Amino acid sequence: MKLTNKSVIVICLMIAMLTCGKAEEAAKATATNLVTEIQAIAARNGSQNEYSDVLKKYLDFDKISTRVLVGVKKKIRTDKGQEEADKAITEFLPKFIPLFTTYMIKKYTNPENIEKFKNMTFEMGRVDDNGTYFTVNTKFKPNINPSGSKQGDLEVYWPVGKSNSLIFDMVFVDAAASFFKNEQSEATAKFTGDLNALLALYQ
User: Fold this and answer.
1) How does pLDDT run across 26-76, given as a tens digit for each residue?
2) Which of 90, 141, 186, 191 has its Cβ near the most Cβ atoms within 10 Å?
3) How many other CB atoms are there within 10 angstroms of residue 160's CB atom?
4) Burial annotation 117-156 (CB, 10 A radius, 16+ → b, else e)
5) Burial 58-91 (b: 16+ CB within 10 A, else e)
6) What pLDDT does 201 receive?
7) Distance separating alpha carbons of residues 134 and 165, to the nearest angstrom
8) What order do you get walking across the sheet with 171-172 strand by strand?
């Protein structure tokens, strides 16, 4: 049976749409599951250690760590050239990723940060396709506290990789603040030309 060019194009488009739809649902599920599991730990006043497996399951710490070093790589490139910068960061990442992952988990699962999400209702919004990743738009609606006051909704979007459905940033819309962009600025500011000295700051 012969297929016309039009038939082939239509079939390819249908397959692409189905694949994209599944990837979009996976991105939504990643954000939803992360928040649900974090809120469950917070509700029972769980220890910081309980958050570690959850965050490692849903966050792409390899990508996060690589992005955090973008400014550092630029500094090395300026001083020593592109080839040396590529080589230095490639050799440094296997040492940096596990230390930085532990550092991030400890830093962002402290009671002050977790408390923000503890008594809030999570709502899923639209998902935007950005080519190589999805942006999952969500909202946290605060519950009324005992005094009767209610803060405004907290809008957060999560960039989620298409290839692995893992989150690689968390952006607060109103504050235009990104956890991992802040970390990138800090790492760049801390870097004095010695990668081992930078590594020691995360130990």
Assistant:
1) 999 999 999 999 999 998 888 888 999 999 999 999 999 999 999 999 999
2) 191
3) 27
4) beebebeeeebeeeeebbbbbbbbebeeeeeeeeeeebbb
5) bbbbebbbbbbbebbbeebbeeeeeeebeebbee
6) 92
7) 9
8) 120-129, 133-142, 154-161, 171-172, 177-178
- CA distances, 39 to each of 53, 145, 198 (Å): 14, 17, 33
* Cα–Cα distance measured from residue 41 to residue 51, given in angstroms and rounded to the nearest whole number: 7
pLDDT score at 113:
81
User: What six digits make up the tokens of 49?
Assistant: 């250690």
Where are the extended beta strands (E) located within 113-180? Answer: 120-129, 133-142, 154-161, 171-172, 177-178
Number of H helices, E strands in the chain: 8, 5
Helix (H, G, I), strand (E, B) or coil at 202: coil
Q: Are 167 and 144 in contact (CB under 8 A)?
A: no
Return phi, psi of residue 142, to 5°. Answer: -65, 140
Rounded Cα distance between 31 and 110, Å, is 20
CA-nearest of 153, 146, 148, 126 to 137 is 126
* AA letter at 143: N
